[in-house]
Design a protein that fits this description.
Helix content: 25-40%
Structural class: alpha/beta
Largest sheet: 5 strands, mixed
Mean pLDDT: 94
Number of strands: 10
Strand order of the largest sheet: 3-2-1-4-5
Radius of gyration: 18 Å
Number of helices: 6
Distance between the termini: 57 Å
Shape: globular
């Protein structure tokens, strides 16, 4: 098993964790954000100090790679790349939506044959989502959905679909299908990253530290200031 430093800044939550031997051994989270620029460096220092104090050498850094907050992803990936470059560590990227399925699979009783649909809020009735089966095979790839009653109908007509994430609750009234299941309070957190990161280590699926960029899904659009000059 490897010792992995994990970072997630894809939403308003900032989280950092250290895992070893298939278990999370250190975790810090801030739900009051977005405070990534302030909190992330402090949490990373604490995590690395924890590993050093227990004589645990880091083997890799895993980072949530998107989709999600444009600024948050840039901050998290930049931090991860800097650590990897400075300490000659491997870089692992974990898709944010796939990360969100981990606590659902570990903590919830998911029905046989059910599908998982993590959702990130993209404002109004738009979400970033994907559809997975219980083995985390991708049934439908990541895309931006403007949600109406037919958006996920083909999957709901087959059987239960579990919707979760900060974009899910606002969509349930519109989806309105007897096979739709809502799970509340699911966030992409660094402490859930280790099963996916370890799988990528086993497959030797690493990123190029110099050239890796987050998966934004959409281009960044700067807002004009409303302040009078």
């Amino acid at each position: 098993m490897s010792c992995i430093l994990s970072i997630d800044t894809s939403t308003n939550v900032c989280s950092v964790a250290v895992s070893q031997d298939g278990a999370c051994i250190f975790s810090k989270e801030d739900f009051d954000g977005p405070n990534h620029a302030v909190k992330l460096g402090v949490y990373v220092d604490e995590a690395m100090s924890f590993a050093d104090s227990h004589a645990i050498p880091l083997d890799a850094v895993a980072v949530s790679c998107g989709p999600g907050s444009y600024t948050g992803l840039r901050i998290g990936v930049s931090m991860a790349k800097g650590i990897c470059y400075g300490q000659n560590l491997k870089l692992i990227s974990v898709p944010t939506l796939e990360l969100m399925t981990v606590p659902v699979l570990l903590r919830e009783e998911v029905e046989e044959g059910a599908l998982l649909c993590p959702m990130l809020d993209a404002r109004r009735m738009e979400v970033y989502s994907a559809v997975y089966d219980r083995a985390l095979h991708e049934v439908r790839g990541i895309q931006a959905d403007i949600v109406d009653s037919d958006t996920y109908k083909e999957y709901l007509d087959r059987g239960p679909v579990y919707f979760f994430g900060d974009g899910a609750e606002k969509c349930m009234e519109v989806i309105n299908h007897p096979n739709a299941r809502l799970i509340k309070n699911v966030h992409p957190l660094a402490k859930w990253m280790y099963p996916l990161a370890e799988k990528r280590i086993a497959l030797e699926k690493f990123e190029d530290v110099a050239y890796f960029v987050p998966f934004y899904l959409k281009d960044f659009v700067a807002k004009e200031s409303k302040k009078l000059l």
